[in-house]
Amino acid sequence: MNVARKQIVLVGAPVDEGAGQRGCLMGPDAYRTAGLAGMLEALGHTVADHGNLAPAEVGPLRAPNPVLKNYRAYVGWTRALHDKAAGLGAASVFPIYLGGDHAMAAGSVSGQARAAAARNRPLFVLWLDAHSDFHTLESTASGNLHGTPLAFLCGLPGFDDLLGSPLEHTLKPENVEILGVRSIDREERDMLRGLGVGVSDMRRIDEEGIAPLLRPFLERVRAADGLLHVSLDVDFLDPEIAPAVGTTVPGGASFREAHLVMEMLHDSGLVTSLDLVELNPFLDERGRTARLMVDLAGSLFGRRVFDRPTRSF
Asked: What's its catalytic activity (predicted)?
């Protein structure tokens, strides 16, 4: 079991322009209020909170598709998070990006990919989500930009505005594993199949179990000497246990399935950065979802069953 103590950096990304329902901008402070830093310190890690980022200033931009919502804000947040993540990825720290809707991953993951390339190591991404977030700026019908970051990160065309030039360090699609998905639009499905992105939906999890699906991916990361970024969306979880999300899809991961994923990730020792996204405290029940997400982070950082306080949810 990996018991290394880590230098953890918390970065707030109060992004909610990418979602259809506002409120995710309160997410970073909800994680802080739920005791994320204290829990990590109790496990022996060192925690530095860098506060909340602000979007970068961008000049006039014309959205390439009129249906897109808050396009300039998406560009500003992507640039700010990319620069921050590239710096943290080059340092001997473990960054946790506190969201904020999933549009923020366009910046956090692209920055981590840039840093990984500078170290001559591949970046792998585990995308824990009810959705694949693989729309391009042209294929999206809703215009909600939290549905597009993974397409950008895998190098699909049309995203040059996000960093002001084409993305240099794209993810290899075969290095991406989407786990727990249960809502994929037809256009996304066609692109995912064509590119070879790993996708395990909830039916496959029901049939095969979550551990047998995660284990081969972790083995591939290890064999490639890769760095692993985990992007955990609240809607990966079943809404019965995690109601604080604006994109609820029934039938998500159970409490134990989610903790097992985090425990396996901890035991692997492969994870080097983390997103916690789509927490909308406005929709929560007395902090229930925020506390659960903090507990899941605890499992990722080494908290065992014996370490957990008994608590009624």
From this structure: L-arginine + H2O = urea + L-ornithine
Cα–Cα distance, 49 to 109 (Å, whole number): 19
Residue 82, marked binder: no
129 annotated to bind ligand: yes
Write out pLDDT tens, residues 119-165: 999 999 999 999 999 999 999 999 999 999 999 999 999 999 999 99
**Is 101 marked as a binding-site residue?**
no
> Which residue numbers are catalytic?
102, 129, 131, 133, 146, 233, 235, 278
The class that CATH gives domain 7-307 is alpha beta
Between the alpha carbon of residue 224 and those of residues 92, 175, 179, 220, the distances in Å are 20, 10, 20, 6
In our burial notation (b when 16+ CB lie closer than 10 A, e otherwise), range 251-263 reads: bbbebebbbbbbb
Alpha-carbon span 250 to 120, nearest angstrom: 40
Q: Is the CB of residue 271 less than 8 Å from the CB of residue 2?
A: no
29 is in an annotated binding site: no
CA 137 to chain centre: 20
**Among residues 47, 49, 46, 58, which one has the least CA distance to residue 82?**
58
Sheet holding 227-233, edge to edge: 46-52, 7-13, 94-99, 271-277, 227-233, 123-128, 176-181, 198-201
Burial class (CB in 10 A: 0-12, 13-18, 19+), 66: exposed
Q: What is the C-alpha separation between 147 and 254, in angstroms, rounded?
A: 23
Report whether 307 belongs to an annotated binding site.
no
Residue type, 244: A
